[in-house]
Amino acid sequence: MTIKEVSEKFNLSKDTLRFYEKKGLIGPVKKTKSGIRDYEGQDLKRIEFIKCMRNAELPIDVLKKYIDLYKSGKETKEERKKLLENQQKILKAKIDKMQKAYKLLTDKIDLYNSGKIDEYLDISIKNN
Amino acid sequence: MTIKEVSEKFNLSKDTLRFYEKKGLIGPVKKTKSGIRDYEGQDLKRIEFIKCMRNAELPIDVLKKYIDLYKSGKETKEERKKLLENQQKILKAKIDKMQKAYKLLTDKIDLYNSGKIDEYLDISIKNN
DNA sequence: ATAAACTTTAGAGTTAGGTCTAAGTCAATA
DNA sequence: TATTGACTTAGACCTAACTCTAAAGTTTAT
């Protein structure tokens, strides 16, 4: 699969794919004798994982660390698990914050919709 | 209230508070005759709102835009509402992505816990 | 009254995560 | 065969959101 196809499949720019590879998040991807990347099944799976984690804003170095641990074999199992649990915790905290902001936004929009918005103090929601 | 107190109350650095003010997100904050900031009730409310929105990663320029609209009066009501609704939509999409990643992380951790983790292909979850 | 611990400003520096450019190679088409 | 278009690389550049620095003024404690 060419870089263009992968780029379209995952909606990631070609630059980003090469950038992730340079960072060690994916690959090294197989190349044709003339040096053109040819992505294989395992690459696609990895890209999918990375994309999902990046969507959730897990930092590139954390993902890199996980992959490096993975590459160094069974004895890193515990460490990998801890890394994942830690990221899970961080992610949960983020989701909570976002949901709080979402609720605030929703309440504000409700005020606009009901015409009750205070034109002079609409920055904060009345009372909570 | 001094910048130090506000900084501690909201757990935002003093630099960040001054930065937000320079950007027009808060203030201009009242100053003593010698030029020291003295934050008042309305400032604190604004800071709380900004902090909540920044926790949810709403961009500074978007918040700035909202505040500018707010400052220019009643006739911007519709535009403000649209801006909020748009951000709400974006935020919902982000939360969805994060929840998807959260689930993937949870599933992976479960694999580690049940000892079923594939040592050679643990980058992606089996089957879905 | 003098040191320590604040505060101010303008502006430079940092970090993460891409994105773009230039110069070159290669394969397929007109 | 020439040109078009996609690919390669190294490395420069970009943006957002801080964060830090320097030089100066102010307030508090002893």
Structure commentary:
- The structure is a homodimer of 128-residue chains.
- The first copy, chain A, is an all-alpha fold.
- Helix content of chain A is 65%, strand content 0%.
- Chain A has helices at residues 3-10, 14-23, 41-55, 60-71, 77-114.
- The first copy, chain A, is flat, with a radius of gyration of 22 Å.
- The mean pLDDT of chain A is 91.
- Chain A binds chain B through residues 42, 45-46, 48-49, 52-53, 55-58, 67, 70, 73-74, 77, 80-81, 84-85, 87-88, 91-92, 94-95, 97-102, 104-106, 108-109, 112-113, 117, 119, 121-124, and chain B through 42, 45-46, 48-49, 52-53, 55-58, 67, 70, 73-74, 77, 80-81, 84-85, 87-88, 91-92, 94-95, 97-102, 104-106, 108-109, 112-113, 117, 119, 121-124.
- Chain B binds a DNA duplex (30 and 30 nucleotides) through helix 2.
Number of helices of chain A: 5
SSE-based structural type of chain A: mainly alpha
User: What ranges of chain A have pLDDT less than 50 throughout 5 or more consecutive residues?
Assistant: none
Distance between the termini of chain A: 53 Å
List keywords for this structure.
DNA-binding, mainly alpha, 5 helices, 128 residues, flat
Write the layout of secondary structure elements.
The structure is a homodimer of 128-residue chains.
Chain A: H1 3-10, H2 14-23, H3 41-55, H4 60-71, H5 77-114
Helix pairs in contact in A: 4-5
Chain B binds a DNA duplex (30 and 30 nucleotides) through residues 2-4, 13-16, 18-19, 23, 31-32, 34-37, 54, 59-61.
